[in-house]
Every structure is written in structure tokens, then in C-alpha cells.
Amino acid sequence: MSLRISVIIPAAGLSRRMEGFLKRKPFILLGGRPVIAHALDVLRKLGGVKEIILVVNKKDLKATGAHFGGRRVKIIEGASTRSGSVYNGIKVLNPGCDIVLIHDAVRPFVTADMAQRCIRAAGRFGAAVCAVPVVPTIKSADSHGFVASTSDRSRLWEVQTPQAFKRDLIIKAFKNAGRLNSSITDDAMLVERMGRKVKLVMGSYRNIKITTPNDIKIAEGILRCE
């Protein structure tokens, strides 16, 4: 039996680090189209997707509905934190879905293969995240600014989205989380706190997250190379 997928795309951030841009990050133009549109195009076409839940800032509800609303797309209001926005999406999930796929609106270069690998791994292991091996050398510092240790790079991964979870598992993880605050930087953290293992799935170094104005320049460069 094929898996039934619900997709949650958090897009309610305040974009405080995007100085010089009037629009919030998901709606900044990239290659002439809003950043969020690039990921949405890919995720809409995934096999098994029954619904896509866009979680946006209250001020963006009307515009988002006009541009991205349609069949299978729910547009709801977000919260003050990313984790709170994802939880808002979880609360309106179709009860018939098997897997919840969560993807940042500001990662425009997700691919269908990447998402499908994550979904398959979640179907098998319960939880899976896209990630890439860390390339730089990583050092830990002490409280005085001196090197405390050098991490074993072979065991370090930079986690991305999409992240996928069995529906009941991610619902339980959020319900058990307590206060959802900015220290929760990805959804897998909540599953890990329950003592559950999360499978790493190969992502892509092109799957960048747009956080600062410089990231827009990098993303434009990636688009030109495609």
C-alpha cells in the first residue's frame, strides 16, 4: 500500500536578518518567483501527497491564499516560533495521513528524490532527516574562547529539511515537548528527546537555507548553473 503524505511548510518567520528586503524571506523573488514557490512546485508533484499545509505569518494570509491556494493546499496562521508554527500545522493534519513531511519554505532547492528518500526512510524507521556530511573542521570552545576539543568530522552531519515522520510519532513528540521555543531548531530534536532514533538520509550541498541577504546571491548563482 502506498504511503499517504501530508506536507507542512513553515513560512511564518519574521526575517529579521534580511536587511534591505521589504518582503519576508519566503516571498522574496528568486529567479523572478517567490522563494517558497520553488519548493512548493516540487512537493506538490510528489506521489502520495494528499495535502500541503502552508503555515504563514498572519500578515501574509491573504496574499498567500491568492497566490498559492488551491486543491489540497491549506493556508493557516503561524506562531511566534518555528516549532510553534509546525505544531499549528500538525493540529490540522488529515487524520488519514501516514507520513508527515516537514520542509522549510526557505530551502528552494529541494528535489523529489531527496524528499522521497526521506519519506521511505521514515516509513521504515519512523523518523528521517536529510543531511550532508560536515566539510569544515569543527572545534568546541571553552568559556574563555580557547579551543576545548576538535570534533571527529567523520561523525558530524549538517541537518537540513525535508524531515519526515510517522504521523503518530511526530504528534506525540510535539505533545510531549512542553514549551515550544526558539531553542528547538529542528523537528527531529523532539523525537530524539523521546529516545527514538532518527535516520540520516543524504541531502544535498545545494539544498541551502536562505537566512541572510548573501544567501539570495548564492541561490541566484545556483539557479544560473541549473
Helix count equals: 7
Strand order of the largest sheet: 5-4-1-6-10-7-11
Strand portion: 15-25%
Distance between the termini: 35 Å
Number of domains: 1
Poorly predicted regions: none
CATH class: Alpha Beta
CATH architecture: Alpha-Beta Complex
Give the CA-based shape: globular
What's the gyration radius in Å?
17 Å
- What proportion of the residues is helical, as a percent range? 25-40%
Work out the number of β strands. 11
Q: State the fourth-level CATH superfamily.
A: Spore Coat Polysaccharide Biosynthesis Protein SpsA, Chain A
| Secondary structural class | alpha/beta
Mean of residue pLDDT values = 93
Order of helices and strands: EEEHEHEHEHEEEEHHEH
The biggest sheet amounts to: 7 strands, mixed
Oligomer: single chain
What CATH calls the topology is Spore Coat Polysaccharide Biosynthesis Protein SpsA, Chain A
What features would you describe in this structure?
The model has no long low-confidence stretch (mean pLDDT 93). The chain starts with a strand and ends with a helix. The protein contains seven helices and eleven strands. It has 226 residues and is α/β, with parallel strands linked by helices. The strands form three sheets. It has a seven-stranded mixed sheet, with helices on both faces. It is 31% helix and 25% strand. The protein has one domain: Spore Coat Polysaccharide Biosynthesis Protein SpsA, Chain A.
List the helices and strands and how they pair.
Blueprint: E1 5-11, E2 29-30, E3 33-34, H1 35-44, E4 49-56, H2 61-68, E5 73-77, H3 82-91, E6 99-102, H4 112-125, E7 127-133, E8 139-141, E9 147-150, E10 157-166, H5 167-175, H6 188-192, E11 199-202, H7 213-225
Parallel strand pairs: 1-4, 1-6, 4-5, 7-11
Antiparallel strand pairs: 2-3, 6-10, 7-10, 8-9
